[in-house]
Fold:
Amino acid sequence: MVKQTIQIYGRIKPTKKNTTVYSVDNEEQTGAFLEFLVPRDLADGFVNNKRECYRFRFLKVFDQAVEQEEVFENIAKPVADSVLAGYNGTIFAYGQTGSGKTFTITGGAEHYRQQYGFTTHISYLEIYNEMGYDLLDSRHEASRLEDLPKVLIMEDPDQNIHLKNLSLQQSANEEEALNLLFLGDTNRMIAETPMNQASTRSHCIFTMHLCRREPGSATLRRSKLHLVDLAGSDRVSKTGLSGQLLTEAKYINLSLHYLEQVIMLCQRRNRSHIPYRNSMLTSVLRDSLGGNCMTTMIATMAVDRRNLDCKEGLHTESISTCRFAQRVALIKNEAILNEELDPALVRHTHTHTHTHTHTLTALHQSLQPPFKPQKHAFMCQSLRPDSPHISRPKIDQQMSCSEN
Ligand SMILES: Nc1ncnc2c1ncn2[C@@H]1O[C@H](COP(=O)(O)OP(=O)(O)OP(=O)(O)O)[C@@H](O)[C@H]1O
Structure:
């Protein structure tokens, strides 16, 4: 068993504007500090009694110039390696609208290197207004979100969560896996808000389910990797929304509130009851938050003046994102190696005890690796936009929202 607190990293989105209000201090030994400096003259005539300096600790902070490749090497690769070994992993991005969550989790419009990896199953869930949708329903490519299959949460007697109607698509190689990612992205709901024209107003969870058989062994290792792109964490009152967008924002606020509630309770030593069931997001991420998973969070921040709280001259959203991250860093997870005896082998052994031939055939079949493990498996590559083989299709408003 691996006991580990949730690992927190910060990432500052590049801006062309001159920004002197923060500083990053990455120390090898002590971790990193992100400091927001709030000069009094930014208060625009208001009396500013706030602190001048807000200091937050992260494992590492990736400043504006840091490329996706380096973020991948530092954050995603260790998690992907653990998942390949048989542990569950989660990487989630949290931050205000437009701060770079989607970019960090799924990459920009670049090309990806095509390299054959091993077979895996993939699911892609969108949670919009507390309702789950299967983004990988290929019959509904580029249709309205409401037309996609609705995903329901079911719980078995052992309180394990099952997602009914969420398809698991097998992918034989990296190209197929990336195409599933692109299909899902095409189906994602994109709505305009005054703050960001291509804002995602929903939570999206791209999950890779791996099943690995050790050569020469009858045990299987099953692990999952969740890549979680949360909706913007901004408060509703600031963005001046109404109608459908206000409803969306309220749902987002509520589910982020439940996420925060779970996080607060997970920190306590005496964890009696954690209300995971309050929202779909926390139900799905149950293992990731205080359970059987190695979890990493990336706090994304946009620091240009547009994102300043004008009255106070503060980076209010960045500061609350950092505060959220500090609370997340206190959560202790316990990841176990998800090993089990191959059920197919057990079944064969029971039904064919009278002859060794069948048992041996089954044993032989079950010991064939279902995939060829390679150092650079799909996940290791999926965030690496560095070579010209597979391109992300352009997703425009028309494609993603309506067939007409
Ligand atoms: N590190 C980066 N380098 C270059 N461009 C970036 C980076 N991070 C974000 N961007 C760009 O900034 C814009 C907003 O980023 P993104 O859509 O990832 O934000 P978000 O936090 O996911 O927003 P939302 O909450 O609306 O989903 C996009 O055009 C994206 O390409």
User: Anything to note?
Assistant: The CA atoms of residues 7 and 296 lie 5 Å apart. The chain has one domain: 2-343+378-401.
